[in-house]
Amino acid sequence: MPQRSAGFADPIIGSVVGAAVCLLVSLAMICGCRMDGIDRIGSALAHDGVAPNGAPKILVKDKIRVHALSPNPAQSLLVDELVELKTEIESKTGINLSNASTPIDVYLFKDEMSFREFTAQANAVFADRRAFFIRSKEALNVYGFWGMQVAEDLRHEVTHGYLHGAIPQLDLWIDEGLAEYFEVNPDADGVNATHVRLLADLGRQGNWKPSLERLESITDPTQLTQTDYAEAWLWVHFLMSTPIGSEVLTTGLVSSGSVDQIPWSVEVKNMLGDANNQVLNHLAQVTQRTLTPSTVTR
Questions:
Q1: What pLDDT is attached to residue 43?
Q2: Range of weakest confidence among 31-45, 59-73, 134-148, 226-240
Q3: How many alpha carbons fall within 13 Å on the CB side of residue 70?
Q4: In CATH, which of 3.30.70, 2.60.120, 3.40.30, 1.20.120 is domain 11-166?
Q5: Residue 55 above 50 pLDDT?
């Protein structure tokens, strides 16, 4: 996507965004579409009573605070969906998110151009992103723009926010796998058709086999490929498809970051046996239900 030089006329917006860009450039750890590190962008903007695109109003519902242009009915409906997302995550994962005290601040730019103006001076990692999540000890911040895919983008990033608000430390693969699962429309039952198509094609061509042990060994987010994101989604969808798998998922999330945490691949093998073949069978079933013959690459 093209980048544009930032040129903010409002001196307050310009100074805040200028400081924000410096902070984005200096952040040390980048995890998938989330960033871990010192972040004063959201707090500075909130303190000045403005959003990145100059809007002074904040739409607040439950733990979601959207900083955007004057709220409109469409934005309000989207916020309602993001609030409901918390219940979806709790229901599917068995994790209680209600006790998390940190709100999720969503900085919603009015359009892609203004978003690109904000990120153009930052680290090149933002060049092709439609949205991203930043975590710090003090804040859970999401940045994106109002566009055709805003619901998908914000569901993904806000999922990171909910999870990190409740769980101190998450392995990269499960964090991204859950976000990929919950980004789709609730009516889709977690089926990400794009990932189904990719993995079905790669498997048919003999270019991919699932390996949770390999996937959980990836700790550098810059090493994650699109196939890795798809496989992370598949393992999450597979675990959620059976009572035993759901138990493994909940137990793993509850123990995440603890000294006695068992590696995911070990726990999955202990509880489910040869899960690699089972996840392939699960993919075949999902593919049959999701894709028509004409949508599968031959």
A1: 40
A2: 31-45
A3: 0
A4: 3.40.30
A5: no
